[in-house]
Amino acid sequence: MAQDNYHQPVLEREIVEFFARQSTGVLVDATLGGGGHSAALLDASASRRILGIDRDPEARAAASTRLATYGPRVRIVAATFATMADVIAEQADFLAGEPVTGVLMDLGVSSHQLDELSRGFSFRGDAPLDMRMDPTQGITAAQYLASADLHDFVRLLRANGEDRFAGGIARSVLERQPQTTAELTDAVERAVPMAARRRGHVATRVFQALRIVVNDEMNELDLGIEGALSVLAPGGLLAIISYHSGEDRAVKAALLEASTGGCHCPYELGCVCGAVARVNLSRASAQLATAGEVEANPRARSARLRTAQKVAS
Questions:
Q1: pLDDT classification of 101: cutoffs 50, 70, 90
Q2: If residue 254 lies in a helix (H) or strand (E), which one and from where to where?
Q3: Cβ density class 141-179: b for 16+ within 10 Å, e for less
Q4: Among 128, 129, 282, 304, who pairs with 142 as Cys (CB 3.0-4.6 Å)?
């Protein structure tokens, strides 16, 4: 398996610097991918150990090869980050009594998944319309479309930024029932006039929307953030990288809720409900990649990093 497209972890310097505040204990890389972030974090601290989680068997295989030199400092588990709390409970022997001092979540689709055209994530080639991050479980994108309700599909497209032509695209796609990525692209192109096509590929947001629903990404994200907050030791660090506005809004909202303890008291009255903050936010806004990183790695352009520290009890 080619590993070159696993070799550019986004915001690597920022992630290493953030977790340098917690150089011991076990760090959970909840979206292991090819192991790029984990390798950098292990290099940065000889006393750190990493528990890597990924649902994609190709990613786990690539990471196993890349991280083999770190030996017992790494363990890789087949799971989704939505089940993080269960994974931690099952890996007590690896933790060996040490606390979880950090959790990293690098969301979305990996460069490898996009470049491996047979996986069906990309419109750049023709392949079966699959899009599952774990190709051994769940329904494919083609199977989802076979039973999708028109109004639900329109709402899905609009939620992913496809506003003006969502209705026409949804009708075109459901009428044609595409089985391949090329057929899906053709169905989208038929619904969008040439003069109205924005910068970038006309099918980008449709592919994104299907990938998100097929992999239940937004629900997984909510469960993953809650799981991270539950497994982190007091003082532990959480870092989440998102790549589209829907993800970033969800991350921002979840961390804000955790930082207030769920308090919704009127600002002018102050908190009278007794809510207790679960985290302190590292900064109010998301951290972006530098211009130099974006030039070297274009995928970093859309990356948004939000960080927090669990409140010490």
A1: very high
A2: helix 245-260
A3: bbebbeebeeeebbebbbbbebeebbbebbebbbeeebb
A4: 129
Q: Is the pLDDT of residue 1 over 60?
A: no
All CATH 1.10.150.170 domain ranges in the chain, comma separated: 134-214
Query: What's the confidence (pLDDT) of residue 302?
Result: 92
Greatest C-alpha distance within the chain: 62
Residue 21 has a CB neighbour count (10 Å cut-off) of: 12
pLDDT in tens, 229-270: 999 999 999 999 999 888 999 999 999 999 998 888 887 777
Please check whether the domain covering 4-112+217-310 is classified as CATH 3.40.50.10330.
no
pLDDT class of 199 with cuts at 50, 70, 90: low
List the beta strands (DSSP E) in 203-298. Answer: 232-242, 279-281
Two structure tokens written together for 74: 């790494």
| DSSP secondary structure string for all residues of 111-146 | HHHHH-GGGS--SSS--BS---SSTTSS--HHHHHH
Full-model pTM: 0.91
d(CA 258, CA 277): 6
pLDDT at 2: 43
Torsion of CA 288, 57, 81, 151, to 10 degrees: 80
> What is the C-alpha to C-alpha distance for residues 94 and 194, in angstroms, rounded to an integer?
56
CATH says 134-214 is which class? mainly alpha
| Contact (CB, 8 A) for 9 and 37 | yes
DSSP letter at 273? Answer: S
